[in-house]
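pls read this protein:
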Amino acid sequence: MQPIYLDNAASTRIADDVLALVTEVQRTAWGNPSAQHPQGAAGRGHLATARGRMLAALGDRSAAGDIIWTSGCSEANALAVLGAEARVTVAELVPAVITWARGPMAELFGDSLSDPRADIRAADVVEVIRSSPSAFDAILLDVDNGPEALIRTANDALYDLKGLRAALRALRPRGVLAVWSSGPNAAFTKRLRDADFDVNEVGVRATSKRSGAHHVIWFATKRGNTD
């Protein structure tokens, strides 16, 4: 029987041609792209080629075009849509990720970590939320697989009633808690309402072509008169 793989939202099989290219780059150009030695120069060459191909795919073949590498999708989306006065706090649980982003992988991450709008913290997002009363207009949680917390049980502290009430306190009036999940969870929807949020549960597809796996995003709004 041919097996059917249905967990692409968590981990997708790499395409054969991509795997071949990555293997070749790792074998021949493994150096820090920011370094001046030959291996670094080889890495910069591959990054320049990747930028050019991405710009071409986006329809911009001009010399002035550029690609900004960020630390992740959530930060990239936030910085792209927010104005110059915005402030984005990014909580990264593993300090080594930040160290690598500022060191060996600095060329990949570009200016995202030094963007004056971004506050990059090596911290547990649970503690950031708990220690920040009335600090945020929006809190975006794309953690684990959602409220099921399949990977790290400590993430339950984000999604239980105590954690949701902490998020409510961290939001300003009419602030929004947005939570992504790999699938629906009726119990979590009820907990959001029990925590005194106005809840809008939206079903989304994995791709922009409205195909692929079915996911859920909850938009939970703090009421204007809630302290």
